[in-house]
């Protein structure tokens, strides 16, 4: 992977805290939802309810598509990324605790939660490993994307 593109991807991941993640429902329809995430390198993690639709979808098919972006008043300043990834449930308690700590640190400006931070066994945590990343950067031209295989 080109180092300049890798750095752009890492920058975009660091700039944002939420993403839209799409999983496949049992009936074949995609389901897109917004979740918070943390990342380390190109690996991302998010959590959801133990019996959530996302968790059920990913138990059947671990393919995910995701998008990370933001609103801007200047159309030529649009940047973001989309990714095809494989999701794996985090089963290692140490990795789960690390992810929950990373999530708490990711929101230093947030008001206190109305409940305690969930314990690893109270949520489903997924690790996303990218397969293909598309980096969107309109400053390089309208609709410009760079496709990166991982």
UniProtKB/TrEMBL annotation:
GO terms for cellular component: cytosol. Keywords: Oxidoreductase. The keyword Oxidoreductase applies. The keyword Methyltransferase does not apply. Residues 6-132 form the Pyridoxamine 5'-phosphate oxidase N-terminal domain. GO terms for molecular function: coenzyme F420 binding; oxidoreductase activity, acting on the CH-CH group of donors. Gene3D superfamilies: Electron Transport, Fmn-binding Protein, Chain A. SUPFAM superfamilies: FMN-binding split barrel. InterPro entries: F420H2_bilvrd_red/Heme_oxyg, Pyridox_Oxase_N, Split_barrel_FMN-bd. PANTHER family: HEME OXYGENASE HI_0854-RELATED. This is Pyridoxamine 5'-phosphate oxidase family protein. It comes from Ramlibacter ginsenosidimutans.
């Amino acid at each position: 992977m080109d180092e300049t593109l890798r750095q752009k991807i890492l920058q975009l991941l660091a700039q944002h805290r939420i993403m839209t993640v799409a999983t496949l429902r049992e009936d074949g329809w995609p389901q897109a939802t917004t979740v918070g995430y943390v990342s380390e390198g190109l690996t991302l993690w998010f959590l959801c309810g133990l019996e959530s639709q996302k968790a059920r979808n990913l138990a059947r098919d671990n393919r995910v598509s995701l998008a990370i972006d933001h609103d801007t008043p200047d159309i030529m300043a649009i940047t973001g990324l989309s990714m095809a990834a494989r999701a794996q449930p985090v089963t290692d308690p140490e990795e789960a605790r690390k992810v929950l700590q990373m999530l708490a640190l990711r929101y230093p400006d947030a008001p206190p939660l109305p409940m305690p931070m969930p314990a690893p066994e109270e949520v489903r945590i997924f690790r996303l490993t990218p397969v293909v990343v598309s980096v969107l950067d309109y400053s390089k031209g309208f609709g410009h994307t760079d496709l990166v295989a991982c």
